[in-house]
Amino acid sequence: SAKPVVEAWMTANLGAEARLRDVGEGLGSLGRAVRNAEAVIGQLSAEGLRLHPETAVAIAEAQAQRNRPLRTALWAGAAALLALMLLGG
Fold first, then answer.
1. What are phi and psi of 68, to 5 degrees?
2. Pairwise CA distance, residues 30 & 52, whole Å
3. Which of 15, 21, 47, 85 meets the CB 3.0–4.6 Å disulfide criterion with 11?
4. Is the pLDDT of residue 2 over 90?
5. How confident is the model at residue 89 (pLDDT cuts 50, 70, 90)?
6. Beta carbons of 71 and 79 less than 8 angstroms apart
7. Cα–chain-centroid distance for residue 75?
8. From CA 24, how far away is CA 52, in angstroms rounded?
């Protein structure tokens, strides 16, 4: 039967000791991140954030896609105002 194997795996990976081990590892990672934060902040303030050109292009394309409905609505509104001005006056 696979039951003893499954129970052993669950105890090793999901039991209280495993959760405590995971918390300990997480705290270690957090400690390293805090120690490195000052250096990273200093580097960012001195040099700024530099992006790979492909990353910058991907960000610009994503923003363009997200803003397209707004731009379309603005152009439609401008066209409607122009039409009202031309037809009404």
1. -55, -45
2. 27
3. 15
4. no
5. low
6. no
7. 31
8. 35
What SS3 state is found at 67?
helix
What span, in angstroms and rounded, lies between the C-alpha atoms of 77 and 67? Answer: 15
Which amino acid is present at 74? L
Indicate the domain borders of the chain.
1-50, 51-89
DSSP notation for 1-21: --HHHHHHHHHHHHSHHHHHH
Q: What is the pTM (predicted TM-score) of this model?
A: 0.35
* Residue 12 · residue 18 · CB < 8 Å: yes
CA angle 37, 49, 47 (to 5 degrees): 80
Query: Helix or strand or coil: residue 45?
Result: helix
Q: Is residue 34 over pLDDT 70?
A: yes
